[in-house]
Hints:
Layout: E1 25-28, E2 31-34, H1 40-43, H2 53-63, H3 69-81, H4 100-106, H5 115-125, H6 129-143, E3 152-155, E4 159-163, E5 169-170, E6 178-184, E7 187-194, E8 209-214, E9 222-226, E10 229-233, E11 255-260, E12 268-272, E13 278-284, E14 287-294, H7 302-305, H8 310-313, E15 317-322, E16 329-335, E17 342-346, E18 350-354, E19 364-368, E20 374-378, E21 387-391, E22 418-423, E23 427-434, E24 441-448, E25 453-457, E26 465-470, E27 474-483, E28 490-499, E29 512-515, E30 519-524, E31 529-534
Antiparallel strand pairs: 1-2, 3-9, 4-5, 4-7, 6-7, 6-8, 9-10, 11-21, 12-20, 13-14, 13-15, 16-17, 16-19, 17-18, 20-21, 22-30, 23-24, 23-26, 24-25, 27-28, 27-29, 30-31
Helix pairs in contact: 2-6
Amino acid sequence: LGNGNSTTYKLLSDVSIFPDHGHHIRRVNGRNLCRYPDCKRCAASPEASTMHPDCFQLFIHEWRRDYTIETALDVLWIATAWRNPWRGAPDLRLQGKMDINIFLEKLPQLRLLPLELVQMIQNYSEPSLFSRFISVLDLVGRLSPAISDELVSVPLCEISTWQRGDRPTGAAASAGHIIRLTIDSCGIRKIESLPKNPPYSESRSHNMAFVIQEKSCLNGIIAWFKHGLLRLELLEASLGLQIWDTPTPPDLEYCTFYPANITASTCFRTIEMRETIGITFFFCRGKVYAIHAHTLTMPCAMTTLEHLSCRRQRTVAWVYIPISPSDQVVAFGTQLQRSDGHFFRTKLAGDIPIGPYHSGDTRDFILSKAPPMTLIYNTVDLQPISVIGAYSGKGHKSGSIAPFRHPTPDEPPFQDACFSSAPLEMVTRVQVFYNEENTYCRGILLEYENGAQQALGQCRLGVDLYKTCIKPSFLCFIHEEYLRPRTEIRLQAVRVEFTCEPRQNQAKDSWTWFTMTGTLGFWFTNEASHLSVTID
């Protein structure tokens, strides 16, 4: 536990069970350990920093060779607590990747192997105790040099440049009036002064975040320096700082948002649509809690799912929008009456609505209608996304657009159901994703002769098993029910097969068979599903 301004530690406590990220409070050694979102009592309490017991023992063991235990604990507090760039900063979930050279330095025997194999070994060992120990030894090496242990405070606006491990450089009179902070998994990494806002470029980082503000907006913010590290102290009345995942964010004046709950502390995320091969939206009770951009380097959405609390991970529905290499998103919008309903329009697949289905009239609001397009949204700890919009460039010209086509299915077969549909004609390839435990269908991914792709249900790429059928001629399915584990609640489910040959298996006589004509509709939640075929 830290002192009032977190510039030194105040108390060391052994806590064997720390509460999960969410609505949980534990009382340990006379103190409440709380991870309740937006807790007012936590905001007024001393900050806490946690560390694995084995990592803690290794750090202390290495430091006590040359320094006192008090010095070791002070350095450890600053190194762990100051990972948060300021008090109350959002959990940025930045991915700290260990330098491959550090890995080789600690394990010199690996130098005999090709670099590709060393990288594979490093990637597979990252969650392990072995990898954590290497990280601790690396931290000891970075903090051990005789970096000043003096606590120094400087107004942020008076700093021109700074990098972790250095002393700050004062700003000259001619210095730029824009300040950019670079943040990584260890806290604030760098400060820069820029003459003006950098022009927007399509660069996005998973392991760094950025604050870009005019100096006039940063008056009163204090930068604290100790042990070569930096942390900010904001004004009491401050709500925080806006954070981006790009060092060159777009000008908000040229972005369109709905909903637009933008605040002084909004944490923005961006998705470059022309670099994306698909998008997964995580829905729970009609709200979007996370969005994953599928790329060649991050093809699986599990990395984004893991940012949610354990309870939320079990209850979200995966809504996947595929974008084939030959296709392009040409429009994106939302529904004014309901901020939980969105839609895409692609050149080949046409209009694709996403989110829970609502009957009745709707009014569409276009967020972008010209590529190249950047999708923008916010992230909030434990809360659903409350800002979503798009940027198409300063030179974007407005123009008319054909109205979006919304499906008009029958009433949902169960509560909070999402609906997806796709034509059955001209299908060249289909993948049926299924639950490995009970073989019930979770989702269907269709590919068409024109190069388009459409997804129905939950297509959890890289997670669920799937069966593939090339140029199917027939579709068959059967509806069943099953009990939710450890309850008496019955849920709807469906078994699905696509085949190239007519019905031959007598065991499937009770199944419903269709040729590949009409429209396939798929109702679903995270645990229920229902299929229907409509033939005009």
